[in-house]
Amino acid sequence: MKFKEMIKIELKKKEDFPETLLNLLPRGYQELNHIAILNLKPELREYASQIAKSMHEILPSLKAIWHKTGKIEGKYRQPQGLAHLWGDNSSEIILTENHVKYKFDFTKIMFAKGNVTERRILPTRIKEGEVIIDMFAGIGYFSLGMARTKKPIKIYSIEWNPEAYSYLCENIKLNKVDSIIKPLFGDCKEKIMELKENKIRADRIIMGLLPAPVDAIPSALSVIKDNGVIVYEGIEGKESTELFDEFSEIANREGFLTSIFERRVVKIYKPHLYHVVIEILVKKK
Ligand SMILES: C[S@@+](CC[C@H](N)C(=O)[O-])C[C@H]1O[C@@H](n2cnc3c(N)ncnc32)[C@H](O)[C@@H]1O
Predict the structure, then answer these.
(1) Measuring from atom 19 of ligand 1, which residue has the nearest CA?
(2) If you measure from the C-alpha of residue 23 to the centroid of ligand 1, how many angstroms do you get, rounded to a whole number?
């Protein structure tokens, strides 16, 4: 039986839960290591504890239930408004996915489960001996999986949120990839300038940030090798070419030709708009 049906049946039994709200219950929840994160409509918020109580009765494997009222926002792309409802109240977890361990505090750091395919695909692209720059590394979402292939010589992983950076450093140790990943703390444009001064050039650059980090394209191009790959993320229509066209216009101005290696729709962002990833081949003119 589906979650919504199960929770409806359970709450119907409770006299103090208004029947008019039953249809507003969520269809599902996010789960991280047996911790459920519920997103409730405003009308249901005053009943959050009651919903959590019924939920753990029907789902005994859950260790804790949290309630999320905000979105992922701000310059650090952090989750907003997480409140503990039931069970164990520690929010630091180690999540294992595709054999990679990610340690983080889910009240402070985002982890988009929907990006699992991206985290799996990117490492499969890497060739032996590559130098990679991950411009928006977070806790190592992409860097860790790429490093675990042992193919790159070096990955420079840049992150400017002190909390995410601290988890990035811990995750590098946890996954035993210290010899491959060099974490760099600060704004990616400044860190790229330093890499450039040190004559570092990359075969592949990951630009994993939403909305699309257009203003960082010239920085990325300033350190890409004559034939390189830039993995560019953004939000656009399902069949749109807007992101690629905008990227290409800037790249052309900077003296590069561009072509698409692959474009993927990762997930729906909001009606008619999608989170898209484009692997762009760039070649010096
Ligand atoms: C949350 S990650 C996105 C990860 C990945 N796209 C995903 O969804 O799994 C983006 C990270 O970029 C960082 N960031 C944003 N702007 C930055 C900048 N100018 N320099 C360095 N890091 C930056 C944020 O702090 C955040 O941790």
Answers:
(1) 187
(2) 36
- Is the pLDDT assigned to residue 244 strictly greater than 90? yes
Query: Ligand 1 centre from 245 Cα, in Å?
Result: 23
Which numeric CATH code is attached to 110-284? 3.40.50.150
CB atoms within 10 A of CB 197: 8
162 and 151 Cβ atoms separated by less than 8 Å: no
Write down the CATH number for the domain with range 3-90.
3.30.300.110
pLDDT, tens digit, 9 for 90 and up, residues 88-120: 999 999 999 999 999 999 999 999 888 999 999
Å from CA of 233 to ligand 1 middle: 11
Q: Domain segments of the chain: what residues?
A: 3-90, 110-284
Instruction: Determine the Cα–Cα distance for residues 166 and 176; give it in Å rounded to an integer.
Output: 16
Cα→Cα distances 32→11, 96, 112, Å: 24, 10, 10
**Residues 172, 146 contacting (CB under 8 angstroms):** no
